[in-house]
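Final report, closing paragraph on structural work. Over the funding period we assembled a curated collection of sequence-structure pairs, and we close with a single example.
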Amino acid sequence: MLVRDGANGPEVFLQRRVGAMAFAAGMTVFPGGGVDPADSTVEIEWAGADPAWWAERFATTEARAKALVCAAVRETFEECGVLLAGPTGDSVVGDTTPYREARGRLERRELSLATFLAEEKLVLRADLLRPWANWITPVVEPRRYDTHFFVAVLPEGQLADGATTEAAEVQWSTPAEALDRWRAGTDILLPPTWSQLDALSEFTSTAEIFAAEPVIDPIMPELTEEHGAKALSFPGNDRYFADLPGTAKLRGSARG
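Its predicted structure, as stored:
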């Protein structure tokens, strides 16, 4: 979740996924993607808390934690051009356009994150990320993911864009505005995305967001049945389904 301070409070960067995607087609989501096997096995110049700290926060192994952080940095760069790295452990690049070719090669898996950082003499800034949440796809879904959410503040001088094959549309908006568009049926939000936007809407600045220390317990929605009706059960599901727009109002995927 990439955030910045705006005139009306913190804003978050959102993407509408293209309609041809195998998972969550047409949905409005945060930048993200899968872990690359090389992310956990190659030495990378690293600034910030070590993998052991991340492993404790996400209740996983150090190797897995390292891979998650590397994937977060790599996917953020691939999907919106924001690079959480710098020439030194206390600096960050201000303009990522010189790395445009490398970004394409990373997205096509022609280049690994470790090789890219080494060739450009850049240090991965793990300290610019914070752990936020962990959602696991329900067992009833044919495609299942163990998704770890991070939060990062947009580095000064950098711009987030939509130059990725996975996004049909991108935008910055406050969490409240994003939730309003969902209620109106303009955007489609899966429960994990809705939940994070709902949580972010409680903060008045990116400094508050970055300083937050949410309890990260894995959340896996379960299919339940009540009064003959089936529904997914997860924290806040009553508010989610109460505000969920009717299918006739859902315009997001058609626009994408």
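The chain has a mean pLDDT of 89. Residues 87 and 120 are 8 Å apart (CA to CA). We thank the funder for supporting this effort.
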